[in-house]
Amino acid sequence: MTQKILVLPGDGIGPEITAQASRVLAACQARGLDVEVEEALVGGSAYDAHGEPLPAATLEKARGADAILLGAVGGPKWDTIEDLAKRPEKGLLGLRKNLGLFGNLRPAILYPQLADASSLKPEVVSGLDIMIVRELTGGIYFGQPRGIEERDGERVGFNTYVYAESEIERIGRVAFEMARKRHKKLCSVDKANVLEVTILWREVMERLAPEYPDVELSHLYVDNAAMQLVRAPKQFDVIVTGNMFGDILSDAAAMLTGSIGMLPSASLNESGQGMYEPCHGSAPDIAGQNVANPLATILSVAMMLRYSLNEPVLAERIEAAVGRVLDDGLRTADIASAGTRTVSTTEMGDAVLAAFEAQ
Ligand code: NAI
Ligand code: MG
């Protein structure tokens, strides 16, 4: 059956990088991928056209899509909008919330060609390939009550850290399944020595473990996990953690790989529908200059093929094409180094397409 893909270019460099990713998607269609591709507005571009960052028509199309490819949203142009609900970033949060995209997958892969871009020594990071599974719709970022109020003559800020067993279980299952498909090691990160929520978290992970006897489950406190990530990151295969710890650890892991311009992500819901996007933002400082790195968005298409469209072979083909282009020494400005050739966004797209076709 023909599957539906919705492309949401967004703002800033979003349209430039999604244009290159859409070309790769079209090349997959030419190779037999049976999909129908549609585009819609989100973020600041939607606000400019309709006065809303997430117009009802866009949300409707998103609900009906099997997978969504998003560029990025936001920029200084919209930072002065007084009504916070109308800011571009709310378009993205609205999509995540409305679609129930609780499972955030953020791979941190170091391409061998970019080893000198990492902040760590080559021997510590070479061959790095870890997957962080972050819970995205619960935890302290969403818990109620929250606020800042006056108590006993001073202001008090408070948030609520809460996870239901069912929320922990569903993200746990995503992580166990992921580990099963990879190197069969799952590390659950919590703070069970201090926080009750994560005592429950650890219990639920332990309860699931017998259902995945092929996966080796371990636990780390988040402070130690942060230390281990920079000390010896290759000890990890899959990491599963809650919203806030995952936010922080995945940014740290991202930096190990050198450039945010290389990192894709996926956010999945219970029915397997997914939204795929680069980890970076709309980069207003370089928007419209045809210099942005489109590889994170192109690699997001590969994740889409793997996790939503069940096309692992095409996914590998895209990843191999990216590797080939890096082998050839082509670099956008953000990943350029001595001895490489700096290319534009569109030239990078051309090169990936050519490498894809050549396979
Ligand atoms: P950013 O990720 O947009 O940019 C940070 C730095 O990385 C900038 O110097 C930028 O030029 C560079 N950069 C980012 N992506 C790049 C790429 N593909 N190629 C080359 N260089 C790249 O983060 P920043 O500056 O904090 O935020 C800018 C805007 O993006 C803000 O409005 C923010 O709210 C929004 N944002 C949107 C996100 C999303 O749509 N998922 C995520 C993060 C930020
Ligand atoms: Mg973050």
Can you put this structure into words, describing what you see?
It is found in: Cytoplasm. Belongs to the isocitrate and isopropylmalate dehydrogenases family. LeuB type 1 subfamily. Its EC number is 1.1.1.85. This protein is of the alpha/beta class. The protein has two domains: 1-102 and 269-359, Isopropylmalate Dehydrogenase (3-Layer(aba) Sandwich), CATH 3.40.718.10; 110-262, Isopropylmalate Dehydrogenase, CATH 3.40.718.10. 40% of the residues lie in helices and 20% in strands. The protein has helices at residues 14-30, 44-50, 56-64, 88-99, 122-125, 165-181, 196-208, 222-231, 243-256, 295-307, 312-327, 345-357, and strands spanning 3-10, 35-39, 67-72, 103-109, 129-135, 147-151, 154-158, 185-190, 216-221, 238-241, 264-268, 274-278, 330-331, 341-342. Strands 2-1-3-12-11-4-5-10-8-9 form a ten-stranded mixed β-sheet, with helices on both faces. The protein has a two-stranded antiparallel sheet with strand order 6-7. Strand 6 (147-151) and strand 7 form a beta hairpin. Helix 1 (14-30) runs parallel beside helix 12 (345-357), helix 10 runs antiparallel to helix 11 and helix 11 (312-327) packs across helix 12. The two termini are 26 Å apart. The mean pLDDT is 95. It binds 1,4-dihydronicotinamide adenine dinucleotide (NAI) and magnesium ion. Magnesium ion (MG) binds next to helix 9.
